[in-house]
Amino acid sequence: DILSQLIHARDEEGRQLDNSELRDELRTMLVAGHDTTASTMAWALYFIHHRAEISRSLSDEIAPLGNIPTPQQLNQLIYLEAVCQEALRLHPPIQLSVRQVKQTMSLGGWTIQPGENVAVSLRLLHTAPEVWEDGTEFRPERFLGRTYAPWEYAPFGGGGRRCVGAAFGAFELRVVLGTLLAAARFE
């Protein structure tokens, strides 16, 4: 679990988080995580109800589970996961993934020196025409039977600084969205 990982985490010098740092990390994860999940869920609901075939496909997948599906059941739904991934693609929880350069590098004809920051716009990454055909359109089927490389799809950032709550956030999004769709019909 995330708490255990934080308790046992060590930095480059082998130092653990003190109680104050641990509290701040947990507070950030709980507050920021719920806010970003809520925002992504709002976008998912918008897109689901913007295209009737998406709403029907989700209803068909969720209906056999009844009005109160378990988190485990919802976590197994392939189309629900694809809808969530597509919502995260078009509206990632963070807009920029910023990293500090550790050694001189060349990027697009520019030389970037150690200590300078580089940023990737996740929205631009997630709509790059080389990867995403009609990249501004909401099409969950992109994620059916296909996975994307971290340099193509990174809604929670990437590398060693990827969001610690990414797996939980993705799970939470599927469970809450699936629970809402199982229990109610929205207009």
Explain what this protein looks like in three dimensions.
By secondary structure, the chain is mainly α. It is built from 7 helices and 4 strands; from the N terminus they run αααααββββαα. It has helices spanning 2-8, 19-50, 52-62, 71-75, 78-90, 122-125, 166-183, and strands at residues 96-100, 105-107, 110-112, 117-121. The strands form 2 sheets. It has a two-stranded antiparallel sheet with strand order 1-4. A two-stranded antiparallel sheet has the order 2-3. β2 and β3 form a beta hairpin. The longest helix has 32 residues, at 19-50. The mean pLDDT is 90.
Task: Give the SSE layout.
Blueprint: H1 2-8, H2 19-50, H3 52-62, H4 71-75, H5 78-90, E1 96-100, E2 105-107, E3 110-112, E4 117-121, H6 122-125, H7 166-183
Antiparallel strand pairs: 1-4, 2-3
Helix content: 40-55%
Helix and strand content put the structural class at: mainly alpha
Largest sheet: 2 strands, antiparallel
Q: What is the element string, with H for helices and E for strands?
A: HHHHHEEEEHH
Q: What are the segments in which pLDDT stays under 50 over at least 5 consecutive residues?
A: none
Tell me the Rg in angstroms: 19 Å
Which of globular, elongated, flat, extended, rod-shaped describes the shape? Answer: flat
**Average pLDDT taken over every residue:** 90
Q: Ends: how far apart?
A: 37 Å
Give the strand order, joined by hyphens, for the main sheet. 1-4
Strand content range: 5-15%
Question: What's the count of strands?
Answer: 4
**Tally of contiguous helical segments:** 7
In short:
By secondary structure, the protein is mostly helical.
